[in-house]
Write a structure and sequence with these properties.
- It contains six helices and three strands.
- It has 132 residues and is mainly alpha-helical.
Length: 132
């Protein structure tokens, strides 16, 4: 199920907006932060990616004008990733269609009881996976 759902959502997202799932994750995360910016290391930790992997992805997004990457003023070794106006427009256009796709292919297929059960299962699994 997970593979089929991920594939459908990724196809819908790319077809509707031209964004990949990682693009969407970066843009939506930045869009929810104060100043639409975040340290690269914090963003990588949030996405569960290595700094190197995210840095390469950010470079590709930067070439497309979706984000900018600048040195941290208070730490010469760190970088700040900032959502550009084009990135803000891209996530603004993509989000409603992506949410609709998630609802159509997953959420709306479940009853309120199903959603409550899913939430309980998810909390239990995440707690176990985060435990030391």
């Amino acid at each position: 199920m997970r593979g089929l759902l991920d594939l459908r959502l990724a196809r819908d997202l790319a077809g509707d907006s031209g964004l990949s799932e990682p693009d969407y994750d970066v843009l939506s995360t930045l869009g929810e932060t104060a100043g639409n910016r975040m340290r690269l290391t914090e963003l990588a930790a949030h996405m569960l990616w290595s700094n190197s992997r995210l840095s390469h992805h950010i470079a590709r997004m930067e070439q497309r004008g979706l984000v900018s990457k600048d040195p941290c003023a208070d730490d010469g070794r760190g970088s700040l990733v900032t959502l550009t106006p084009a990135g803000l427009a891209a996530i603004g256009a993509a989000a409603p269609r992506h949410v609709a796709s998630v609802r159509e292919h997953f959420i709306d297929l479940l009853s309120e009881d199903d959603l409550a059960t899913l939430a309980a299962i998810t909390e239990r699994v995440v707690a176990k996976l985060r435990a030391p």
